[in-house]
Design a protein that fits this description.
Largest sheet: 5 strands, antiparallel
Number of domains: 4
Number of helices: 13
Strand order of the largest sheet: 6-5-4-3-7
Shape: elongated
CATH topology of the largest domain: SH3 type barrels
CATH class of the largest domain: Mainly Beta
Low-confidence stretches: 31-44, 181-186
Strand content: 15-25%
Radius of gyration: 42 Å
Length: 384
């Protein structure tokens, strides 16, 4: 067995407290983080509560900040700069009751994302617009989007005279004002002189008729009105469950369920008078959008034959009529087959012949009925 090394044993032997020399005595003193101008200590003793209440003033009251919606802040900043008073971040923050950092972020967003011409005037110490700007552009549109919106506005002439005319006009005016941007080189006035629609305006002698029917459809109420059929001399009372209003070729129609005849009917608004809501709810569920579209799918314009089966109609066009037919989409079911000599055959699937016959006769000798035979006979009888 190895003998322990005495050198290491003596080196790691712990000393007792009796071997240590005592430290010099230090006077106890209360310390504080309050700085003092005393050169000897560098600190000052902690004050008593009574002394602190007398010698230390209370902090100033802080300003209450609020969470404002971004759109509200943008509008406030825009109008403050528009007044020409050159507001700075501090003044805007006090007025809107937010921080100066929030104001700076809003100004950066308005400048770089909304293209608002904001700059800072170091002489006057505030913000200003580098060019005249009437309204705050809330969002940006490309030139293609602006043209599309304008075309849509022109196409909505069918609502002229209805309860939707003024709200639509106001909405497009607001849209025009909200899309002002230096990045768009096409103005609304330029489009107005470059694009127009020449179509039949919707015929609506009494705007009140349209308004009452629209309210009845929204509230699902039964309506009563006097109706004069095309070949009738007097008005007769109708009680109808209104389903849908449609504008086709400049004419407004009502699709609904006629309680007197217990069948689905289509009415022309121009032939109605004294429309009133009864307050009674519909007894039949109103058709959805898909069912409405399927209902009109097999009609040439609006009219359909009751319980009629759709059939194929084939017409042959020649000369200039063939080119005119080729240039347009006449029906969702149409199919065109090219023939020799520039002629063509147009195929349609309809369940009523009443509306297609006047259209065929309008082409004269350049349109020939191929089938069905009953349509060919009726056209020849009327053209003789």
């Amino acid at each position: 067995m190895r003998t322990p090394n005495r050198f290491y044993e003596n080196s790691f032997r712990h000393r007792s407290n009796t071997d240590l020399e005592p430290l010099p005595a230090v006077a106890q003193r209360k310390w504080s983080f309050y700085r003092c101008a005393d050169a000897k200590t560098g600190f000052m003793p902690r004050l008593s509560k009574k002394s602190r209440s007398v010698r230390i003033s209370s902090p100033a009251k802080t300003r209450t900040l609020h969470s404002r919606p971004p759109l509200y802040r943008f509008q406030e900043i825009f109008h403050a700069i528009k007044t020409g008073r050159y507001p700075n971040r501090t003044k805007l923050a006090e007025t809107i009751e937010v921080t100066t950092k929030t104001i700076q972020r809003d100004i950066d967003y308005m400048r770089y994302q909304m293209s608002v011409p904001i700059e800072f005037d170091f002489v006057r110490g505030g913000y200003y617009f580098t060019r005249p700007i009437a309204d705050l552009p809330l969002f940006q549109l490309t030139e293609a989007e602006l043209v599309s919106v304008f075309v849509a506005q022109k196409a909505l002439e069918a609502y002229k005279g209805t309860a939707f005319e003024q709200p639509l006009r106001s909405a497009f005016q607001k849209l025009q004002a909200a899309t002002g941007s230096a990045n768009i080189s096409v103005s609304w006035e330029d489009l107005d002189s470059a694009i127009s629609f020449r179509q039949f305006s919707a015929h609506l002698p009494d705007a009140g008729v349209f308004s009452e029917l629209a309210k009845a459809i929204r509230n699902e109420e039964v309506v009563e009105f006097g109706y004069k059929k095309l070949d009738a001399k007097t008005f007769e009372k109708r009680t109808v469950e209104p389903w849908h209003l449609a504008c086709v070729s400049g004419q407004w129609y009502l699709l609904g369920y006629d309680r007197n005849r217990k069948a689905r009917r289509i009415f022309v608004l121009a032939r109605m008078q004294k429309v009133s809501r009864t307050g009674h709810k519909l007894s039949n569920a109103r058709p959805g959008e898909g069912e409405i579209q399927r209902h009109f799918r097999n009609s040439f314009q609006i009219w359909q034959s009751e319980n009629a089966t759709p059939e194929q109609i084939v017409l042959r066009f020649s000369g200039r009529a063939a080119q005119l037919v080729r240039e347009r989409n006449w029906h969702s079911s149409q199919q065109i087959q090219e023939l020799a000599g520039g002629n063509l055959e147009l195929s349609l699937t309809l369940n009523s012949l009443e509306e297609i016959i006047p259209w065929i006769l309008s082409w004269g000798k350049d349109c020939e009925v191929v089938k069905p035979i009953k349509l060919l006979k009726r056209v020849r009888l009327l053209s003789a």
